[in-house]
Amino acid sequence: MPSRHGFDPECNLLYQINFLSKLAHIFSLVPQGIFINYLTKQIEKAHFGQIFGYFVLIIFSTLSTLGMMKTQFTLVALALIVLSSCVDDIKGSLDSNLRKALVESSKTGSVDHYIMPDSRDFNELPNQDPNNPITEEKVILGQQLFFETGLAQKPKNKDSYETYSCSSCHIPEKGFLPGRIQGIADGGRGFGDNGNFRTIAPSYLESDIDAQGNRPLTVMNVTFMTNTSWSGTFGANDQNIGTEQHWTDGAEVNNTGFVGLEAQNIEGLHVHRMEINDKVLYEYGYAELFDKAFYDIPESERYNATTASFAISAYLRTILTNQNPFQDFLKGDNKAMTRNQKEGGLVFFKKAECYKCHNSPSLGAMKFYALGTRDLYEMGGVNTSADDPRILGRASFTKEENDMYKFKVPQLYNLKDYSTFFHGSSKNSIEEVVDYKIAAHSENSKVSDESMPLTRLELTEEERSDLIDFLTYALYDYDIERYVPQSVKSGKCFPNNDAQSKEDMGCK
């Protein structure tokens, strides 16, 4: 019977017999020392590991000391060789089984479906707005604007002037997330350790701060999304075709006809109290970057929230987690992932059927589901409550009963850096997320178990551990800092620029 790896326990018996016969013949013809060296190399070549090579040498030395005949300890060595080639067979079958599962789960019938493009290969980045083709000049400008605290030109109170940026709520080291349960831009103070300690500034009422009712989504791999935000509110394209009657209450920007990312970033600059004004353009020197990025737009229309959004959107589409073990495995490197990670991949793409929801190259999807997790106001979020329309999910936009409490399927790369999970920051670790989905039991009284897209899953402890290993390490890009600038044109600290944040970050 095949094992859970899918290999035959006989490990190709005819091959083994032939191999052992040849090995015994060699042993009878050569000195013991030469044979031991040959045997050790064969074990290492079979990926059985150097430890077992040493183990074989110890056996030889011990048996030789005891004066035992060559034939007796040869059998011991041959048994280890059989085991070593079995291990090699296991590894080969595991690789092929995982690739088969990837092909079967892929929308295109190929593992290539899951391969991310190079960040600099702009023509290959999907879901670009036809009005905003990506260029190097836009990406350079967009990166600067995203981290620029000098854009904070319109705070509620003057003591927050030029103290926050887009990256206040999208910290690269924390998976481009806040580093705590909720992001606070205008009205926030402090940074702590990678954003874990940010509080309401003394001069602000809770109702005055800029904090969202759901935990922000990451901007990593956002190029694979067509309509942005947890509710998919933004963009005149894809999921929002036919929803024109709902392009009100913050969604008016969809009337521009732009796709999700461009539309949301126009709205975001206004909502988050930022502005492109003369100080930003001429004192900080951004006019020159706008001129290079948008030379084909009349000067009278060149410096505004729309062009700023275009630049930021171009930059965000290049933030891809394309340097990690799983991506390397997809490209043909069978040694990129550990055995446990490959086993975890098989659980993900086969037994647990996680791919049915997480099926894009970023392992997200433009689909909306009610998972029954708790809301942000229940987890200590500020400026939100049980009456916050944002906790309605997709229904906050469509007003459809069938969309109640349904949120977009998020991407799954670099989860190791996340501080919290789900729209309401209701889980604090990958282990908690996996256990919640295994149990398939709603913790939100407004969502029944029957309405969840989950069924209770029976995993062994080993399968659970392998799945967590896959999610934690196989999908982890260690060099996310390549997307962060060394400085911004204003010379100010980022992602925050208030006095407490600067002290926390050691920025002067």
Short description:
The chain is mainly α and 508 residues long.
Written overview of the protein:
This protein is mainly alpha-helical and 508 residues long. It folds into three domains: 13-105; 122-321 and 484-505, Cytochrome Bc1 Complex, Chain D, domain 2, CATH 1.10.760; 324-480, Cytochrome c-like domain (Cytochrome Bc1 Complex, Chain D, domain 2, Orthogonal Bundle), CATH 1.10.760.10. The protein has 15 helices and four strands.
Low-confidence stretches: 1-17, 43-54
CATH superfamily of the largest domain: Cytochrome c-like domain
Give the neighbour order of strands across the main sheet.
1-2
Would you tell me the structural class of the helices and strands? mainly alpha
Mean pLDDT: 89
Order of helices and strands: HHHHHEEHHHHHHEHEHHH
Q: Biggest sheet, in brief?
A: 2 strands, antiparallel
CATH top level assignment of the largest domain: Mainly Alpha
Shape: globular
Share of helix, binned: 25-40%
Total number of beta strands:
4
- The CATH level-2 architecture of the largest domain is identified as Orthogonal Bundle
CATH topology (level 3) name of the largest domain: Cytochrome Bc1 Complex, Chain D, domain 2
List the total number of helices.
Answer: 15
